[in-house]
Amino acid sequence: MNTAVTLSAEEFKALHNSLCELNRLAYHHHVPKVEEIVEHIRKVALRSAYEQEDRDFDRKWQQYQHWREHYGLKTSWSLYQVENMTLCHPYTDAQYVVYDEHWGEGGEVVRQIEGRDWNALYRAADAAIQASGDSHHTFIESFTPMEDKPGHLRLHTGS
Predict the structure, then answer these.
(1) Which residues lie below 8 Å from residue 72, measured CB to CB, with a gap of 6+?
(2) Most buried residue, 18, 21, 70, 132, by most Cβ within 10 Å?
(3) Lowest mean per-residue pLDDT among 53-57, 88-92, 101-105, 120-124
(4) What is the value of pTM for the model shown?
(5) What is the rounded distance in angstroms from the CA atom of residue 22 to the CA atom of residue 35?
(6) Is the distance from CB of 86 to CB of 143 less than 8 angstroms?
C-alpha cells in the first residue's frame, strides 16, 4: 500500500477502543501473541496518530490551564473536544449551571452563567463546585441540558 491514510477523530477513537478491548480479552484468556500484535499496531501502525493525539492533548491542556490561572479557578477543565475557550458554547439558551451530583454538603447548587463562551461555563461550573464543598470531584467533564428546567445545564464532574 502506498497511500497515506487519514483517520477522523471518531475513527481513531473507535480503533483505539477496539485495540484496548482486544488486548483486555487476550490478557484475560492468556493469549500473549494477540497482546504482541496489539502492541505492534499501537507502536508501529498508529504511532503517528498517538503522537498527534498527545500533542493535541498538551496544547489543549495548556490552554485550559491558562484560563484556570487567568480567572483564579480551582477546578480542571476536562472537555477536550473544546478547541478554543473563547468561542461560543452550544448551550446559548442556558442561563444557569446546576450541580446536584456532588459529594459536598447540602443539595443542589445553582450558579449563573455570565457570558456565552466556554470560559463563562468554566467559571460558572467552578463556582458551583466550590460552593458545593466537593473537593474530590474537581474535573469538569460535561454539561447536559435539563429538560425539566429550561435554561439550566446539569454539570457532571469526575476526579
Answers:
(1) none
(2) 132
(3) 101-105
(4) 0.79
(5) 8
(6) no
Domain ranges of the chain: 9-70, 74-158
Inter-residue long-range contacts of 139-148, CB under 8 Å, 24+ positions, other chains counted: 139/75, 139/76, 139/78, 140/75, 140/76, 140/77, 140/78, 140/79, 141/78, 141/79, 142/79, 143/91, 143/94, 143/97, 145/91, 145/94, 146/98
pLDDT in tens, 32-69: 898 889 899 989 889 988 999 999 999 999 999 999 99
Asked if residue 2 has pLDDT above 90, the reply is no
* Strands in 9-108 per DSSP E: 76-77, 96-99
